[in-house]
Write a structure and sequence with these properties.
CATH class of the largest domain: Alpha Beta
Helix content: 25-40%
Radius of gyration: 19 Å
Shape: globular
Strand order of the largest sheet: 6-7-8-3-9-10
Bound molecules: adenosine-5'-triphosphate, magnesium ion
CATH topology of the largest domain: Rossmann fold
Length: 258
Protein backbone atom coordinates (compact mmCIF):
# COMPACT_ATOMS: atom_id res chain seq x y z
CA UNK A 1 0.00 0.00 0.00
CA UNK A 2 1.38 3.40 -0.95
CA UNK A 3 1.81 5.91 1.84
CA UNK A 4 -0.63 8.80 1.49
CA UNK A 5 0.71 12.32 0.96
CA UNK A 6 1.88 13.86 4.24
CA UNK A 7 1.50 10.56 6.09
CA UNK A 8 4.49 9.95 8.32
CA UNK A 9 3.50 6.64 9.82
CA UNK A 10 1.02 4.10 8.59
CA UNK A 11 0.40 0.99 10.66
CA UNK A 12 -1.73 -1.67 8.94
CA UNK A 13 -3.33 -4.80 10.37
CA UNK A 14 -0.72 -5.12 13.09
CA UNK A 15 -0.99 -8.16 15.37
CA UNK A 16 1.05 -9.70 18.17
CA UNK A 17 0.27 -12.71 20.35
CA UNK A 18 2.06 -13.87 23.49
CA UNK A 19 1.39 -17.50 24.36
CA UNK A 20 -2.15 -17.28 23.05
CA UNK A 21 -2.82 -13.83 24.50
CA UNK A 22 -3.64 -11.32 21.77
CA UNK A 23 -1.68 -8.28 22.95
CA UNK A 24 -2.47 -6.49 19.66
CA UNK A 25 -5.11 -7.59 17.10
CA UNK A 26 -5.54 -6.13 13.66
CA UNK A 27 -4.62 -2.56 14.59
CA UNK A 28 -4.41 0.04 11.79
CA UNK A 29 -3.89 3.78 12.03
CA UNK A 30 -1.98 6.61 10.43
CA UNK A 31 -0.09 9.60 11.78
CA UNK A 32 0.35 12.65 9.55
CA UNK A 33 3.47 14.75 9.55
CA UNK A 34 3.34 17.45 12.25
CA UNK A 35 0.53 15.86 14.25
CA UNK A 36 0.41 15.03 17.94
CA UNK A 37 -1.54 11.77 18.14
CA UNK A 38 -2.29 10.10 21.47
CA UNK A 39 -2.68 6.37 21.94
CA UNK A 40 -4.86 5.72 24.97
CA UNK A 41 -6.66 2.80 26.57
CA UNK A 42 -6.93 0.88 29.84
CA UNK A 43 -3.98 -1.02 31.36
CA UNK A 44 -2.99 -3.99 29.22
CA UNK A 45 -4.79 -2.62 26.13
CA UNK A 46 -1.68 -3.19 23.98
CA UNK A 47 -0.34 0.37 23.69
CA UNK A 48 3.27 -0.32 24.65
CA UNK A 49 3.24 -3.43 22.47
CA UNK A 50 2.36 -1.21 19.49
CA UNK A 51 5.34 1.04 20.35
CA UNK A 52 7.56 -2.01 20.72
CA UNK A 53 6.62 -3.17 17.23
CA UNK A 54 7.07 0.25 15.62
CA UNK A 55 10.54 0.59 17.18
CA UNK A 56 11.61 -3.00 16.40
CA UNK A 57 11.71 -4.32 19.98
CA UNK A 58 8.91 -6.82 19.17
CA UNK A 59 8.48 -8.42 15.81
CA UNK A 60 4.84 -8.34 14.64
CA UNK A 61 3.03 -11.60 13.82
CA UNK A 62 1.29 -9.87 10.91
CA UNK A 63 0.88 -6.41 9.48
CA UNK A 64 3.03 -3.63 8.15
CA UNK A 65 4.57 -0.42 9.51
CA UNK A 66 5.26 2.16 6.84
CA UNK A 67 7.36 5.13 7.95
CA UNK A 68 8.19 7.88 5.47
CA UNK A 69 7.90 5.38 2.64
CA UNK A 70 10.00 2.66 4.35
CA UNK A 71 8.79 -0.67 5.74
CA UNK A 72 10.02 -0.88 9.34
CA UNK A 73 8.84 -4.42 9.99
CA UNK A 74 11.87 -6.69 10.22
CA UNK A 75 14.38 -3.90 10.88
CA UNK A 76 16.46 -3.89 14.06
CA UNK A 77 15.85 -1.16 16.66
CA UNK A 78 19.08 0.72 15.92
CA UNK A 79 18.25 0.90 12.21
CA UNK A 80 14.77 2.21 12.96
CA UNK A 81 16.31 4.79 15.31
CA UNK A 82 18.69 5.87 12.56
CA UNK A 83 15.76 6.40 10.21
CA UNK A 84 14.54 9.05 12.67
CA UNK A 85 12.15 7.17 14.96
CA UNK A 86 12.99 7.76 18.63
CA UNK A 87 11.21 6.74 21.80
CA UNK A 88 11.10 7.06 25.54
CA UNK A 89 10.18 4.22 27.89
CA UNK A 90 7.31 3.67 30.30
CA UNK A 91 9.91 2.91 32.99
CA UNK A 92 12.38 5.73 32.54
CA UNK A 93 15.60 4.46 30.98
CA UNK A 94 18.60 6.75 31.39
CA UNK A 95 22.29 6.18 31.98
CA UNK A 96 21.90 7.00 35.66
CA UNK A 97 25.60 7.18 36.46
CA UNK A 98 26.35 9.54 33.61
CA UNK A 99 25.90 13.28 33.56
CA UNK A 100 23.13 15.02 31.66
CA UNK A 101 25.75 15.97 29.07
CA UNK A 102 27.01 12.38 28.83
CA UNK A 103 23.52 11.04 28.23
CA UNK A 104 23.06 13.58 25.46
CA UNK A 105 26.45 12.83 23.86
CA UNK A 106 25.66 9.13 23.59
CA UNK A 107 22.43 9.96 21.78
CA UNK A 108 24.20 12.32 19.36
CA UNK A 109 26.48 9.44 18.46
CA UNK A 110 23.42 7.52 17.29
CA UNK A 111 22.53 10.44 15.03
CA UNK A 112 25.72 10.11 13.01
CA UNK A 113 28.35 7.71 14.25
CA UNK A 114 32.07 8.43 14.01
CA UNK A 115 34.47 5.60 13.15
CA UNK A 116 36.85 4.44 15.87
CA UNK A 117 39.89 5.48 13.85
CA UNK A 118 38.59 8.99 13.24
CA UNK A 119 37.64 9.33 16.93
CA UNK A 120 41.11 8.25 18.13
CA UNK A 121 42.97 10.70 15.94
CA UNK A 122 40.47 13.55 16.44
CA UNK A 123 40.58 14.67 12.84
CA UNK A 124 39.29 18.10 11.82
CA UNK A 125 36.03 16.42 10.79
CA UNK A 126 35.67 14.89 14.25
CA UNK A 127 36.35 18.21 15.98
CA UNK A 128 33.75 19.86 13.75
CA UNK A 129 31.27 17.11 14.70
CA UNK A 130 32.01 17.64 18.40
CA UNK A 131 31.24 21.34 18.00
CA UNK A 132 28.00 20.54 16.17
CA UNK A 133 27.03 18.05 18.87
CA UNK A 134 27.76 20.59 21.62
CA UNK A 135 25.50 23.10 19.85
CA UNK A 136 22.76 20.54 19.37
CA UNK A 137 23.01 19.52 23.05
CA UNK A 138 22.89 23.14 24.21
CA UNK A 139 19.77 23.78 22.11
CA UNK A 140 18.01 20.69 23.43
CA UNK A 141 18.89 21.09 27.12
CA UNK A 142 17.68 24.68 26.85
CA UNK A 143 14.41 23.46 25.37
CA UNK A 144 13.83 21.06 28.29
CA UNK A 145 15.09 23.47 30.96
CA UNK A 146 18.23 21.51 31.93
CA UNK A 147 20.95 23.99 30.90
CA UNK A 148 22.07 24.49 34.51
CA UNK A 149 22.25 20.75 35.15
CA UNK A 150 24.53 19.72 32.27
CA UNK A 151 27.18 18.48 34.71
CA UNK A 152 24.78 16.77 37.14
CA UNK A 153 24.44 13.02 37.32
CA UNK A 154 21.17 11.85 35.77
CA UNK A 155 20.38 10.03 39.02
CA UNK A 156 20.53 13.33 40.97
CA UNK A 157 17.85 15.07 38.90
CA UNK A 158 14.29 15.31 40.12
CA UNK A 159 11.95 12.74 38.64
CA UNK A 160 10.32 15.29 36.33
CA UNK A 161 13.74 16.48 35.14
CA UNK A 162 14.81 12.88 34.41
CA UNK A 163 11.71 12.49 32.25
CA UNK A 164 12.57 15.70 30.39
CA UNK A 165 16.15 14.51 29.91
CA UNK A 166 14.85 11.30 28.37
CA UNK A 167 12.85 13.35 25.87
CA UNK A 168 15.82 15.59 25.04
CA UNK A 169 17.97 12.51 24.60
CA UNK A 170 15.46 10.97 22.18
CA UNK A 171 15.46 14.26 20.24
CA UNK A 172 19.27 14.28 20.07
CA UNK A 173 19.20 11.18 17.89
CA UNK A 174 17.78 13.39 15.13
CA UNK A 175 14.21 12.14 15.57
CA UNK A 176 11.51 13.07 13.08
CA UNK A 177 8.95 10.85 14.80
CA UNK A 178 8.99 10.76 18.60
CA UNK A 179 7.15 8.06 20.54
CA UNK A 180 6.54 8.93 24.19
CA UNK A 181 5.35 6.13 26.50
CA UNK A 182 3.60 7.69 29.51
CA UNK A 183 5.98 10.63 29.90
CA UNK A 184 3.95 12.06 32.80
CA UNK A 185 3.57 8.89 34.87
CA UNK A 186 4.06 9.82 38.52
CA UNK A 187 4.37 13.56 37.88
CA UNK A 188 2.92 16.48 39.81
CA UNK A 189 0.39 18.70 37.98
CA UNK A 190 3.06 21.38 37.48
CA UNK A 191 5.42 18.83 35.93
CA UNK A 192 2.60 17.60 33.67
CA UNK A 193 2.14 21.15 32.38
CA UNK A 194 5.87 21.31 31.57
CA UNK A 195 5.51 18.15 29.48
CA UNK A 196 2.50 19.66 27.70
CA UNK A 197 4.51 22.75 26.77
CA UNK A 198 7.47 20.63 25.78
CA UNK A 199 5.39 18.37 23.50
CA UNK A 200 4.04 21.46 21.71
CA UNK A 201 7.52 22.94 21.39
CA UNK A 202 8.84 19.67 19.95
CA UNK A 203 5.98 19.50 17.47
CA UNK A 204 6.51 23.13 16.46
CA UNK A 205 10.16 22.29 15.75
CA UNK A 206 8.90 19.90 13.03
CA UNK A 207 8.81 16.59 14.90
CA UNK A 208 5.71 14.38 14.78
CA UNK A 209 4.60 12.88 18.10
CA UNK A 210 2.82 9.67 19.04
CA UNK A 211 2.02 9.74 22.75
CA UNK A 212 0.83 7.02 25.14
CA UNK A 213 -0.77 8.75 28.08
CA UNK A 214 -3.18 8.03 30.92
CA UNK A 215 -3.60 11.67 32.00
CA UNK A 216 -6.85 12.46 30.20
CA UNK A 217 -6.62 16.16 30.91
CA UNK A 218 -3.26 16.31 29.10
CA UNK A 219 -4.48 14.06 26.28
CA UNK A 220 -7.49 16.27 25.62
CA UNK A 221 -5.40 19.45 25.63
CA UNK A 222 -2.43 18.32 23.55
CA UNK A 223 -3.79 15.89 20.93
CA UNK A 224 -4.75 16.64 17.36
CA UNK A 225 -6.17 13.14 17.23
CA UNK A 226 -6.69 10.27 19.66
CA UNK A 227 -6.57 6.53 19.01
CA UNK A 228 -8.23 4.33 21.62
CA UNK A 229 -7.30 0.70 22.24
CA UNK A 230 -8.96 -1.90 24.43
CA UNK A 231 -8.07 -5.59 24.76
CA UNK A 232 -5.59 -5.36 21.88
CA UNK A 233 -8.05 -3.78 19.46
CA UNK A 234 -8.53 -0.27 18.19
CA UNK A 235 -11.98 0.86 19.30
CA UNK A 236 -11.94 4.53 18.28
CA UNK A 237 -9.91 7.06 16.30
CA UNK A 238 -10.85 10.73 16.10
CA UNK A 239 -10.49 14.27 17.35
CA UNK A 240 -10.61 14.88 21.12
CA UNK A 241 -14.21 16.14 21.07
CA UNK A 242 -15.37 13.02 19.21
CA UNK A 243 -13.49 10.68 21.53
CA UNK A 244 -14.89 12.41 24.60
CA UNK A 245 -18.44 11.49 23.63
CA UNK A 246 -17.75 8.03 22.12
CA UNK A 247 -19.92 5.44 23.84
CA UNK A 248 -17.46 2.58 23.32
CA UNK A 249 -14.62 4.58 24.80
CA UNK A 250 -16.66 5.50 27.86
CA UNK A 251 -17.55 1.88 28.35
CA UNK A 252 -13.89 0.78 28.11
CA UNK A 253 -12.92 3.36 30.74
CA UNK A 254 -15.82 2.65 33.05
CA UNK A 255 -14.68 -0.98 33.03
CA UNK A 256 -18.14 -2.32 32.28
CA UNK A 257 -18.02 -6.10 32.36
CA UNK A 258 -18.11 -7.98 29.06
N1 LIG B 1 6.88 -9.48 26.36
C1 LIG B 1 5.65 -9.90 26.70
N2 LIG B 1 5.44 -11.18 27.06
C2 LIG B 1 4.20 -11.62 27.41
N3 LIG B 1 3.12 -10.84 27.41
C3 LIG B 1 3.27 -9.56 27.07
C4 LIG B 1 4.54 -9.00 26.69
N4 LIG B 1 4.38 -7.70 26.40
C5 LIG B 1 3.09 -7.43 26.57
N5 LIG B 1 2.41 -8.54 26.98
C6 LIG B 1 0.97 -8.64 27.28
O1 LIG B 1 0.28 -7.97 26.25
C7 LIG B 1 -0.82 -7.23 26.76
C8 LIG B 1 -0.67 -5.76 26.40
O2 LIG B 1 0.42 -5.22 27.13
P1 LIG B 1 0.98 -3.75 26.88
O3 LIG B 1 2.15 -3.58 27.75
O4 LIG B 1 1.15 -3.52 25.44
O5 LIG B 1 -0.26 -2.88 27.40
P2 LIG B 1 -0.36 -1.31 27.69
O6 LIG B 1 -1.59 -0.84 26.98
O7 LIG B 1 0.91 -0.64 27.40
O8 LIG B 1 -0.68 -1.29 29.25
P3 LIG B 1 -0.24 -0.23 30.42
O9 LIG B 1 -1.17 0.92 30.30
O10 LIG B 1 -0.46 -0.99 31.67
O11 LIG B 1 1.18 0.12 30.20
C9 LIG B 1 -0.85 -7.50 28.27
O12 LIG B 1 -1.73 -8.57 28.49
C10 LIG B 1 0.58 -7.90 28.56
O13 LIG B 1 0.66 -8.73 29.67
MG1 LIG C 1 2.28 0.38 28.55
Amino acid sequence: MATAQGMMLEVSALAKNFAGVAAVSDVSFGVSEGEIVSLIGPNGAGKTSVFNMITGFYSPDTGSIQYAGCELRGLEPFRIARLGVARTFQNLELFRDMTVEGNMQVACQCHSPISLGAAMFRSAAVRRRETEDAERIARLVDAVGLRQQLGSMASQLSYGAQRRLEIARAMATGARLLLLDEPTAGMSPAEVDEILDLAKKVRDSGVTILLIEHNMNLVMRVSDRIIVMDHGMKIADGEPAQIRRDARVRQAYLGTAG
